[in-house]
């Protein structure tokens, strides 16, 4: 059992969390867990109707991405890699000044399985930072199993969430948010320039999960 401590972290219990791309399993899973933790959660999609439909499934509110970006205190980006840059470019203004948490994994798939895709900026998180120059971009939540997040029989998620960023206050907020999910812990894992290997490691986890029929995550020892 890992002992979790939040003595050095801010109180984030009152923050409203928005999730762009919240109609996918990862987004819905995070929305469900943060809602259960007492947060006001908004699910976003290109289609407000689709967002509202997905939101009803887990008891939160759905709206168009732009509305979610404007209303939320912290915004999590959980969109498919293919639409990542275009979406963020369209939301520069409502995301200005906000903590934006990027959990997108640029992956490809072939007969041999999952593999990391090259990203011009270095990583999805660095691409987000390059687009959202007025936002505080943090990378986190890459390795959280959507299956476990959505499973009502799973009360705790046995996981360390690796949090990366160049803004100490922003990474502390995201570490604290990770700890709002029972069983999880946020661990600072470096600056944003190191996000590539964290995103890419998701391909290794997919291989582990396929071989062992599991929903593996990461634990960091001795911290």
From TrEMBL:
InterPro entries: NAD(P)-bd_dom_sf, NpdG, P5C_Rdtase_cat_N, STEAP_metalloreductase
UniProt keywords, alphabetically: Oxidoreductase
Coiled-coil ranges (or none): none
Native source organism of the sequence: Microbispora catharanthi
Any single Gene Ontology cellular-component annotation: plasma membrane
Protein name listed in UniProt: NADPH-dependent F420 reductase
Pfam families reported for this sequence: F420_oxidored (PF03807)
Span of domain Pyrroline-5-carboxylate reductase catalytic N-terminal: 16-106
GO biological process: copper ion import; NADPH regeneration
Recorded GO MF terms: coenzyme F420 binding; cupric reductase (NADH) activity; ferric-chelate reductase (NADPH) activity; NADP binding; oxidoreductase activity, acting on NAD(P)H
SUPFAM superfamilies for this protein: NAD(P)-binding Rossmann-fold domains
């Amino acid at each position: 059992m890992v002992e979790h401590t939040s003595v050095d972290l801010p109180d984030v219990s009152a923050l409203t969390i928005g999730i762009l791309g919240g109609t996918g399993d990862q987004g819905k899973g995070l929305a469900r867990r943060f809602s259960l933790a007492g947060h006001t959660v908004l699910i976003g999609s290109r289609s407000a109707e689709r967002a509202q439909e997905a939101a009803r499934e887990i008891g939160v509110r759905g709206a168009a991405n732009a509305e979610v970006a404007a209303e939320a205190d912290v915004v999590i980006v959980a969109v498919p890699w293919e639409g990542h840059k275009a979406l963020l470019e369209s939301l520069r203004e409502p995301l200005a000044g906000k903590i934006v948490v990027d959990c997108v994994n640029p992956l490809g798939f072939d007969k041999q399985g999952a593999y990391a895709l090259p990203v011009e900026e270095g990583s999805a998180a660095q691409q987000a930072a390059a687009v959202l120059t007025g936002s505080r971009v943090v990378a986190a939540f890459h390795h959280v199993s959507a299956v476990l997040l959505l499973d009502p029989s799973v009360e705790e998620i046995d996981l360390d969430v690796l949090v990366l960023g160049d803004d100490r206050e922003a990474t502390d907020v995201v570490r604290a948010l990770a700890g709002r999910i029972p069983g999880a812990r946020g661990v600072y894992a470096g600056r944003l320039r190191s996000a590539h290997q964290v995103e890419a490691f998701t391909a290794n986890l997919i291989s582990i999960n396929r071989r062992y029929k599991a929903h593996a995550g990461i634990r960091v020892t001795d911290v």
